[in-house]
From TrEMBL:
Keywords: Cell membrane, Membrane, Transmembrane, Transmembrane helix, Transport. The chain crosses the membrane at residues 20-52, 72-93, 159-177, 217-234, 240-270, 282-301, 307-332. It holds the Pfam family AI-2E_transport. This is AI-2E family transporter. Coiled coil: none annotated. Belongs to the autoinducer-2 exporter (AI-2E) (TC 2.A.86) family. It comes from Pseudoalteromonas distincta.
């Protein structure tokens, strides 16, 4: 066993470039694992900077200096965000408050539907099974309510921190965009000279991460906007809130769409019952999800690494468990990074074998 491990290590890491790549990877993972909560503003700023670098580069190509292009893009971005907060924020708050107030009535109505099932389908389900389901759901709702209350109480302590983030993040984004070349040059000086594989992985991942972030933002806006329009046309209550939920559900591949189906179906059932309108809403929602997965995603992420759905789900569960929201958000790029690392180390082994044969 020891000889096997030794042989594997010598085969994969005999090249100093491989050792440097492994060292940098371990340091990065350790920093994110132990200090991830402290550098959240930096991660947020980095995501926004990746998103805004594209228009800045295009303005530079037109002839503007990077400083001027950065100011223009930042002003437009801040204006859009303030408009969204001031226009959509109050609507979402009102709809959320109304939904919370009506939740007990919706639960009672859902309970009535469940209790009626044994009479309608006695061969499929009995009253004891329904009671067990109702008890489980009620317990989960109480647990969720306690978690929300606990979160709201603890989050009050972080109000000052959030206010500071609202100032720091735009500043970080501005300087990341304005001083991009200087910052990347400074980071390059810290990396050892044996950086061939690091540059190989970076060149492969840099464009993918930028395309992924930009694609995800467009996907959220398109799916959320289309869902809002469809729900509004179908006269579904809480259309704005549900549209936002459907839009953000695309952050969690495969799982997000299934989870958001629950509130959409619950609101539709509470409002229309088991009438034609209820089934129409579910069919339209299913069509939106199908178009997202089969048309929109291939268009937006055509340059992304082709990953099997099993690997994507495993990446969501693994990285989400490690780093929460950001682990889920970057699950696909991180899975692509793992694939790029494996490719890099495999190519190193092939190069070494070729040199030895010659």
């Amino acid at each position: 066993m020891f000889e096997y491990v030794k042989t594997w290590y010598e085969r994969k890491f005999s090249d100093p470039h491989s050792s440097t790549l492994l060292f940098l990877l371990l340091v990065s993972v350790a920093l994110l694992y132990f200090f991830g909560a402290l550098i959240v503003p930096v991660l947020v700023a980095l995501v926004i900077a990746y998103l805004l670098d594209w228009p800045v580069v295009h303005l530079e190509r037109v002839g503007l200096k990077r400083f001027t292009a950065t100011i223009i893009v930042m002003l437009i971005f801040i204006s859009i965000m303030l408009t969204l907060i001031l226009v959509i924020g109050p609507v979402l708050w009102k709809q959320t408050s109304n939904l919370v107030q009506e939740t007990p009535h919706m639960l009672e109505q859902g309970k009535s539907y469940l209790m009626a099932l044994p009479e309608q389908y006695p061969s499929l389900i009995n009253i004891e099974q329904v009671q067990a389901i109702v008890a489980t759901v009620e317990a989960k709702i109480i647990e969720f309510g306690q978690a929300v209350l606990s979160f709201s109480l603890t989050s009050l302590k972080d109000v000052v921190a959030w206010l500071i983030y609202l100032v720091l993040v735009p500043l970080l984004v501005f300087f990341m965009l304005k001083d991009k070349l200087e910052l990347t040059g400074s980071i390059a000086k810290l990396i050892p000279q044996q950086r061939r594989l690091i540059l190989q992985v970076w060149n492969e991942m840099n464009q993918q991460i930028m395309n992924y972030i930009r694609g995800k933002v467009f996907e959220i806006l398109i799916v959320g906007g289309v869902s809002f329009i469809a729900f509004t046309v179908l006269d579904l209550r809480y259309a704005a809130l549900l549209g936002v939920l459907v839009g953000f559900s695309v952050l969690i591949p495969f799982i997000g769409a299934a989870l958001v189906t629950i509130p959409v179906a619950a609101v539709a059932l509470f409002q229309f019952g088991l009438e034609t309108q209820f089934w129409t809403i579910l069919i339209i929602y299913g069509i939106i999800q199908a178009l997202d997965g089969n048309v929109l995603v291939p268009l937006l992420f055509s340059e992304a690494v082709d990953l099997n759905p099993v690997f994507i789900i495993v990446a969501v569960l693994f990285f989400g468990g490690l780093w929460g929201f950001w682990g889920v958000f970057f699950a696909i790029p991180l899975a692509s990074l793992v694939k790029a690392l494996i490719t890099a180390w495999s190519s190193t082994h092939e190069e070494i074998s070729k040199e030895l044969s010659e």
